From TrEMBL, chain A:
Protein name per UniProt: Pyruvate dehydrogenase subunit beta
Pfam family, one: Transketolase_C
Keywords: Oxidoreductase, Pyruvate, Thiamine pyrophosphate
Source species: Sulfuriferula nivalis
SUPFAM superfamilies listed in its UniProt record: Thiamin diphosphate-binding fold (THDP-binding) (SSF52518), TK C-terminal domain-like (SSF52922)
UniProtKB/TrEMBL annotation, chain B:
Gene Ontology biological-process entries: pyruvate decarboxylation to acetyl-CoA
CDD domains: TPP_E1_PDC_ADC_BCADC (cd02000)
Originating species: Sulfuriferula nivalis
Statement: the UniProt record of this protein carries the keyword Lyase: no
Gene encoding the protein: pdhA
Function: The pyruvate dehydrogenase complex catalyzes the overall conversion of pyruvate to acetyl-CoA and CO(2).
Pfam families linked: E1_dh
Any GO molecular function: pyruvate dehydrogenase (acetyl-transferring) activity
Subunit structure: Heterodimer of an alpha and a beta chain.
Protein's UniProt keywords contain Cell division: no
Name of the molecule in the record: Pyruvate dehydrogenase E1 component subunit alpha
Top-level lineage group: Bacteria
NCBIfam families for the chain: PDH_E1_alph_y
Catalytic function, reaction form: N(6)-[(R)-lipoyl]-L-lysyl-[protein] + pyruvate + H(+) = N(6)-[(R)-S(8)-acetyldihydrolipoyl]-L-lysyl-[protein] + CO2
Length: 327, 319
């Protein structure tokens, strides 16, 4: 086991998959000569050359569509979109072409491409650079959405995504690229469906994904130490399709749910999970499920307002305490 | 421009340069957060064009490299700095930050962080001018790399079809973050792309303000007289990295030094000295007075201004 950073995990996956299969390419703005904004493609340009590591113009709609087209005839492109905010410009191609082509061609054509993009509020990047868009992507038929919460997942999911015959959107987080964690020395593939019980508990389930898993873990610790509440943490690393069975299993054990997301409500991962809980295990509930989410505002630049707009572990703790009548 | 005009513009350009350099320092001291894109090296572009246009009267819109454009339109440097500090007194009330400087009172319609986003907005403003029958024009400043966005083409086409009073100013500094124009763009001369839409266009040196002014005057007069859109390309260079985290590994130090030989402030300064309208001592005094003003007025205002109130988090979301 080696300790690696999240970006190093992504880089290793790129490297291994490109070495294995000459039809795997990567493309995006500044990913080649400049080494990649978040370094996920560092040194690959030198190793694989400009035909396979493509610095694209600032043409998100264009190059995303181009990558999708290449995937129609067997190329396996990993398309990096620097920030989810810019993925808005590529959504037409992602949604109208990649996600629908398999269905509308009656299974003749598939778009086995990987989209990677960084979402989230980093530090004071303002309204146009802080989007959380997972709720939009997860509602599109034909698209897989995964959200790695640690380096091992980042590495293993990218490898699985490259080999998947579906279009896969890997939703990363700007604040996680330097996070460290263990990655197996041998090749490892992380599933693109399912969920993971990251911490076992008895009284309440905290659902998180990507960065919010870490708020949940921290909250669980505080709840246990300071309030004697045992919280289970479930990492919903796959947002589409969602792991209904996994959600049900945990609720059947704890009978309570808090969902933590950085995205805004209304309309979010949280609303979807609450709907699933209602559909699958309503009569097992001891309390109404609640969600912790961002305020519905374009992300403010000011630091204090920014902190007030996005949730953190304390908000998760507070939600649980309220649920237990302790706050 | 008369010699007096030129002296005023020189003072303004020194202010613009020093303002940006001071931002750099404040960023390192963590007083300014987020992304910060600075303008040194490109001063003759904004100044030359706006001298030919009417600051505060014509509408201006631009990308994230926007502080100087706002100041040139008439925005008080104090409120721009306060914005960068995220203060309630900032021109966008601390909600926008460096990439979203707005000052509608001076017809500065904003800085936008999505590359290419302002193109259609500029055309829309021009459409509004056309309908209202004013003599303003709409001016859109953007970088060269932005021209590779689809909306560039869509906008140029519509601007010509409807003969809109919009001036596109391409500040061609030859890089989009770390990617050289040579590696991203099929047609290196950006003004040539406008011909695909039958739009009048020209290219000129962006370092010599006299040249910029002369070309801009032609362009502005053309647009203002109702002849339709115009595309002006200014050849320039940014001295600093794209943003603060950029170590500039993608370009050579020789190339940077070569461009610095054609510094827009030095060119104007030397011309004024040669014309006997300025002495070196006077210039040094301008620099000193500028620094004092920035320190004693601008920075002090930003430092001492109040933070926004958390209770106002949702203010400005909806009308
Ligand atoms: C739609 C979109 N894609 C990518 C980016 C990231 N990005 C920010 S600035 C930039 C380069 C733009 O270069 P140019 O238009 O030439 O302007 P300059 O920075 O040189 O002034 C890129 C790729 C963005 N902000 N928006």
């Amino acid at each position: 086991m080696a300790e690696m950073m999240y970006w190093e995990g992504l880089r290793r996956a790129h490297d291994e998959e490109m070495t294995r299969d000459p039809l795997v390419i990567c493309m995006g703005e500044d990913i080649g000569v400049a080494g990649g904004t978040y370094k996920a493609t560092k040194d690959l340009y030198e190793k694989f050359g400009e035909k396979r590591v493509m610095d694209t113009p600032i043409s998100e709609g264009g190059y995303t569509g181009l990558g999708i087209g290449a995937s129609f005839i067997g190329i396996r492109p990993i398309i990096e979109i620097m920030s989810v905010n810019f993925a808005w410009l590529a959504m037409d191609q992602m949604f109208n072409s990649a996600a629908k082509v398999r269905y509308m061609s009656g299974g003749q054509l598939t778009a086995p491409c990987v989209f990677r993009s960084a979402g989230g509020a980093a530090h004071q990047l303002g309204a146009q650079h802080s989007a959380r868009m997972e709720k939009v992507f997860m509602g599109v038929a034909g698209l897989r959405v995964v959200t790695p919460s640690n380096p091992k997942q980042a590495y293993g999911m990218l490898k699985s995504a490259v080999r998947s015959d579906d279009p896969v959107f890997i939703y990363e987080h700007e604040l996680m690229y330097n996070m460290k964690g263990e990655i197996p020395d041998e090749e490892y593939f992380h599933p693109l469906e399912g969920s993971e019980v990251t911490r076992s508990g008895a009284d309440v389930t905290l659902f998180g994904y990507n960065i919010s898993v870490h708020w949940c873990l921290k909250a669980a610790e505080i709840l246990e130490k300071q309030h004697g509440i045992s919280a289970e943490v479930v990492d919903l690393y796959a947002l589409a399709p969602l792991d209904r069975a996994g959600i049900k299993k945990s609720i059947s054990k704890t009978h309570r749910a808090v969902i933590a997301e950085e995205d805004e409500a209304p309309v979010g991962v949280g609303s979807e999970i609450i709907a699933i809980i209602n559909e699958e295990c309503f009569f097992e509930l001891d309390a109404a499920p609640v969600r912790v989410h961002s305020a519905l505002v374009p992300q403010p630049y000011n630091h204090t307002l920014e902190k007030a707009a996005i949730p953190d572990h304390q908000d998760v703790v507070n939600a649980v305490l309220k649920m237990f009548g302790k706050a | 421009m008369t010699l007096d005009d030129k002296k005023r513009v020189l003072r303004e350009m020194v202010l613009h340069r020093r303002f940006e350099e001071r931002c750099y320092q404040a960023y390192i001291e963590r007083k300014i957060g987020g992304f910060l894109h600075l303008y040194p090296g490109q001063e003759a572009c904004c100044n030359g064009v706006m001298e030919a246009a009417r600051p505060g009267h014509d509408y201006v819109i631009t990308g994230y490299r926007d502080h100087v454009h706002a100041i040139k339109c008439g925005t008080d440097p104090k409120v721009v700095m306060a914005e960068l500090y995220g203060k309630e007194t900032g021109c966008s009330k601390g909600r926008g930050g460096s990439m979203h400087v707005f000052d509608v009172a001076h017809r500065f319609m904003g800085g936008y962080a999505l590359v290419g986003g302002p193109f259609p907005l500029a055309a829309g403003i021009a459409k509004g001018i056309q309908m209202k029958g004013g003599d303003e024009i709409s001016i859109c400043f953007l970088g060269d790399a932005a021209n590779n966005q689809g909306v560039f083409h869509e906008t140029l086409n519509m601007a010509k079809v409807w003969n809109l009073p919009v001036l596109f100013v391409c500040e061609n500094n030859q890089y989009g973050i770390g990617t050289s124009i040579q590696r991203s763009t099929a047609v290196l001369d950006q003004y040539k792309r406008a011909c695909a839409y039958n739009i009048e266009a020209a290219q000129c040196d962006g370092q010599d303000i006299d040249t910029v002014y002369e070309y801009a005057k032609t362009a502005v007069d053309y647009v203002r007289s109702g002849k339709g859109p115009y595309f002006l390309e200014l050849m320039t260079y940014r001295y600093r990295g794209h943003s603060m985290s950029d170590s500039r590994g993608y370009r050579s130090r020789e190339e940077e030094e070569e461009w610095k030989l054609r510094d827009p402030i030095n060119i104007l300064r030397d011309k004024l000295i040669a014309a006997g309208a300025l002495s070196m001592d006077e210039f040094t005094a301008i620099e000193k007075a500028t620094d004092d003003y920035i320190e004693n007025d601008v920075m002090k205002f930003a430092e001492e201004s109040p933070e926004p109130n958390v209770a106002d988090l949702e203010k400005y979301v909806l009308a």
